[in-house]
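Hey, can you fold this one?
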Amino acid sequence: MASQRTKQNKFKKRALSSLLIFSMLPTMLVPATTFASESEAPSTANVADTTFRVKNLKTEQAVNPLGLDTLKPRLSWQMGSDARSQKQTAYQVLVASTPELLSQDQGDVWDSGKLLSDQSANVAYAGEELQTSHRYYWKVRIWDKDDQMSDWSVQAWWEMGLLKPSDWQASWITVPNEQIPNNRKYSIDLDFTILEAAAGFVFGSQDSSHFYMWQINVKDKPYAQFRPHKWNPNPSVIKEKNISSIIPDAAKLNTAHHMKIDVNGDQISTYVDQQLIDTLQDSSFSLGKIGFRQHKDNLTNERASFDNIKIKDENGNSLFTEDFSNPDENAFGAGKIENGQLVLGELASDLVIKQSERHVPQLRKAFTITKPVKKATVYATALGLYELSMNGHRVGVDHLSPGWTDYNQFVQYQSYDVTGMLESGNNALGALLGDGWYSGHVAMAGEHVYGQKPEMLLQMNVEYQDGTKDQIVSDASWKISTAGPIVTSDLLMGETYDARNELQAWDKPGYNDTDWIAAGTVNDFKGKLIAQVGPTVQAAEELKPKVITVPTPGTYILDLGQNMVGWARLQVNGPAGSKVKMRFGEMLNDDGTLYTANLRTAKQTDEYTLKGGGNEVYEPHFTFHGFRYVELTGYPGVPTLDSITGVVVHSNTEPTGTFESSNSMVNQLYSNIVWGQKGNFLSVPTDCPQRDERMGWTGDAQIFARTASYNMNTMTFFEKYMRDMMSGQGSDGAYPDVAPYLSIVGRGNNAWGDAGVIVPWTVYLMNNDKRVIEDNYASMVKWIDYLKTNSSGLIRPEGGFGDWLNVDDNTPTDVVNTAYFAYSTMLMSKMAKVIGNNADAQKYETLFNDIRTAFNQRFVDKDGHIKGETQTGYVLALQMNLLPEDKQPLAAKYLVDKIKGRDWHLSTGFLGVGYLLPVLTKAGYSEVAYHLLTNDTYPSWGYSIKNGATTIWERWNSYTKEGGFGDVGMNSFNHYSLGSVGEWMYRFAAGIEADSDQPGFKHTIIQPTVGGEFQYVKAEYDSIYGKIASKWQVDGNKFSLETTIPANTTATVYVPTDDQHTVKEGGKSIDEVEGVRFVKMDGDKAVYEVGSGSYSFTSLLTIEGSPLSSVSLTSDQTKMIVGDTTQLKVTAKKENGVTVDLAKAQSVFKSSDVNVATVDAAGKVKTVGFGKVKITVEVTYEGVTLASSKSIFVSNGKNLALGKNASSNNTITVAPTWHIANLTDGNFDLRYSSNGFASKDTANNPIWVEIDLGSVQPFNNLVLYPRLDSKTVDGNIASFPTDFDIQVKADNGEYKTVKQVRGESNLDGGPQRYSFETEQARYVKIVVTQFGAMPHDDIYYRFQLAEAEVYNVEEQTVLTGPSSVSSGQAFDIAYRLSGVTESVYAQDLSFTYDPEQMEFLSVDSLLDDLKIVAVSDVAKNPGKVRILSAVVGGDLSANVDLLALHMRAKSASSVPATLTLSDVIFANGAGLEKEIEGTSYSVQIGAPINKEVLIALIADAQAKHDAAVEGTHAGQYPVGAKATLQAAIDKAQSVVKDDSVTQQQLEQATTELTSALQAFKASVIIATPGDTNGDDRISIGDLAIVASYYGKTSKDPNWNLYEKADINKDGIIDIADLAALARLIIG
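Sure. Predicted structure:
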């Protein structure tokens, strides 16, 4: 072998020396000037990299963060280098107390020295103890793979916050408590109506636990009771009195009554309907506030309405009055105002108290700066929300601070450097204080979940240049006003702003605040203050409206074109007092108005009252909305596109990922995923941003965490969320279902609580962040203990949410719960190992194996079937490694079978969807994964996109154009959970995968998955080490992959191919490339190890075809009217479920009756006559032809049955789907059904339905529409009768049978038409004596219809034929009768035509029983022909073509030739004659046709076909390509053989065959340039072939053999070709 290699090397040297001699010839022979320089140039990989550098310094994943309270901040940096296989081998970090010291390379706080380590992510600070409010400056330098040292990085810094409780000198401040007047003499009048159970009126309220409640109760006893209550603070019933004499039984409900309460000191008298019912003594409370209490629980639902409330003092002066006349102004903020009454019931909170009007507080503090300032830092937070300003300028860019936490546990504070905002002398701090999550509406929990009113805490530390310090703190010296412009501001309800109340310059020095009150100090916060964790909420971008519509006068809808979260900035100009209302919604109703039904109790409404005087700009402060559309009302003038700007708001998570593919729908899906994340990652990962929920559902978060981490840098965002989870963890270890925890939702549900384990693991995996594991470890241990304790034999009990919102495929919850128990345990074992706790790692590994065993024993049978037999059940078992190795392929197959059984659609809900495509791909079913990804029919991601989605929807069918909106109770159009497929798009489609052994993408797995007929996929991900890129393309059998691996990391690259020798990098064979090492073949992928750098791989693929397996033809219309058009849709699928690209297939459409409807080559249908027609498409793909049909009924008149009364002797009613009225309602989705019967035979007890047309009128056709929503077990039409009679009758008399149908069995899925002789009648009856087959999901036989229609069809004659013919061409004209319902036994037809334009040849009958009896002699009467015909086998079926007149065109003419049929005479069996009006037909005669072009093209195509060879090598054609071309040739041949072919058909056939031939030629597998011997590589063997053909030219008769050696394509094989090929070999 060695000697052979030596010979080869010698031969190579000789060849190269020859080429060097050639290269010295004149340049006109060979452009070889770059050849020598390229061969002499050293490889970049062999040169020391002097350009590497340190970049992107971050502390706690932030650039120069302010206000940290972690004592060991994590430092990260990246290595910058373009060289391959570059890595860090050591680093040195310097941390200094001043930038000056750091510039002198002095780390007086920490000098790590040179540490031999490749770690550059999350390096924990290890210097001196950090001090409160100190700023620390740092830099780093590194050593590379050759031990070369970099320059120092640029300086970065971080600043500590307040580290100890004693560092806080500020006090919590708020609006002082309202003083309740001590008024004990007053009267209250009100009207009330009990709607259900009771009405409760509250008065004397001092707060939410001290008040009176007077109740009239009609539920607890058989009679009406007066039940006065007192809360003080516990509730008690003072007494119960029977008042049935005043409110009798008949007046208990829905009857208005009047109540008067007269308070005189300690005596309270109560009147109902002007009668005294009680007097009692009690002096607990003074006047106080009023309100209502309407209780609801499982047993009681108290509902009542109230009106005309009046309160007067002892002198009769009015203290309060409310008649609820304005529905937009509800003083109580709850219930609904309807018909001038306040209706209360089913409230979020039982108690409704009228609050005093108190605008959003404005707080200010004036102070003086007397000497130069070195640094000033504000530390601020709130129980609620706050905005700060300094000297009239906003502090910071954050919104909705301090964010949402469980305020009972902890609250975050924010830090701001305000040094540059201070002025010498007088200064002022200003603050706005909003309710936010603390005291505003939260989800379905109502208001005041955490507290009654917002509070603020602020401390400004000032350090002067002389070294002295000062503090400005929140305390009683601050001033507060509640008379400002923000009337109300609520996260769910919106904001009301009255610009007329603006206090000019209120946050500037010198403002006169003497009318302001002193702040009240409070000390009720018992939680922990922590520094901001992760990103704050900020305004990220702005959107402008695309269009304005006006659905109703004065109402303007502005469409931003994108569902988003934030608010709208309003620009307006108008008179003072004008009120503009902005309502926000995600969708529009069909009438163009704003859709808000899905908001539930959330109002999402902002109101702005103008101050007047010019242009005004308004943005809300303490609210946010989920919306695409903004509705403007009250706008002065007409708004423009500039009147509104959408301000997009979310947590400031830095974008890290991008994704793009050749599939535009998938690109939109990616956009929807990203926008869904933007809209819901707002302080916490909420489920939805618009309705009254917006909670941090943990199950949603865990399934989406991986996708989220690719899209954006979510490391610290999720770390904060884990604090929320820990703060909500129960004492028993149960994690909450929502975080921050709310008591209205539970704890301990699997898949939701498991987020406490899955999210930390995901953060670690994506960011190499051990601290998230360490911080959460004890909490995670408690969770696993909780699961184990609350299991039986390691099987978790049933219950919980399960696979939420699956598509009728419920996975048993004990399967789901146990799977997640096992999964969390497996992850715990891994995380214990990560932090060095090997004992726990072993313990949890053992526990996982025990759960796995229990899972298999309980849920898995011997053949690998899993309990429930659901898609998600199999997905979870495979994803979570719960099955023995031998059962995993079986489970994967069952999963695919389940998908195929749903016509290649998914049925997974929230839990299954994220793992579905990864599981399929890992199991070898990547094409199925791609198919699910690209589906656009329900249920699929594409279905929502097809219906207009710009974000991910909560449901697979939140809206459809056919069915409208989904369940308004839970129908979000921005709900990221189903977007968890984004993980697969990055990990598998693009192939950027993390390695858990080297997390944070220290080692990346590049594993692109080719499929789905995608031409390319590309993605980028900015990891903690730098940017990773992957872009693959497929062109025929050629594959290319461009990938970038950041410095200081490595990667394993999987290149798709069956032959590793076809793989090249940078155009070179792998063994010639530095830094790329072949590892192994893994199935159909070659595996390589690479270092950092950019790589360009190419390979050849073996394309394995999957045969065409199904074709589906669909239409939006089942019924049409003459003259209508519709576009048919064709879907063709391969055997593996992948949808065929129809551009690569042949589709031929046909109409069963062109007299009813025609169809063009593109599938566009046009209806021309009454009747039923079947449209068929034949699809040919890779040699396989399949067909599909669609039946359409075409009417040309009025449906006489539409909306008319229908009745039956046997019917079921299940509203709204099943009802007898549905038979004639025009809605095919609402149906009629009889009851169920065990037998098909109903002859002894016929089932009938009757339609009353309303009056006697003529009709002759009945059309019956079968139900199509459910088929029989063998896929046929269900419940359509096989034996039935059609009967009619007039107003009186007996029914007459007009048609008998027996053995109806040839239903084709469409409407069924039944014709009979014209009858004058009012009633139509269908009498069924034999049922058809039952649906697959039923156990009874029934008579079921979607619709019944009745028509009176006009009688007419029809002539049809080609629209144009060529001179000398023979053609046919078809004759038929249409709409004739009488029996026809004989016909007399007379035709006339111009004998100079066309010639009559003969006539043929098109029916066996129709005989041509006589034809007149046209020679005697040129231009005239009379035809007599008779029916000998029964009466005529008149609605089909009857005769074919064979004609020949004569000379071409610009004037169309016309054949006229005069009046037709026919006779029935009794000899009665009838005359029908005739018709005419015209045809354009053109020049003679020429078939020679097509014949020559056929010969050329056949020759190309016969010479071609299918295979995978260069010059060969893909498998199936020849069959496709042959099918096109055969089709063209049939056109040539057709004597009646038109020129138009000839031209069409020529075009089609030309296209097919071009596609065939383009499919040839192209050889790699220079690969002359076809071995798929460029080597010395190719050089030898070029040398052997030296001197050949394009004039040589065998040039086709030599041409491959003409490397530069100049028509001659010479030294230039040898030199060019040599350059390719050398590289």
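The first strand starts at residue 53 and ends at 59. Let me know if you want another pass with a different chain boundary.
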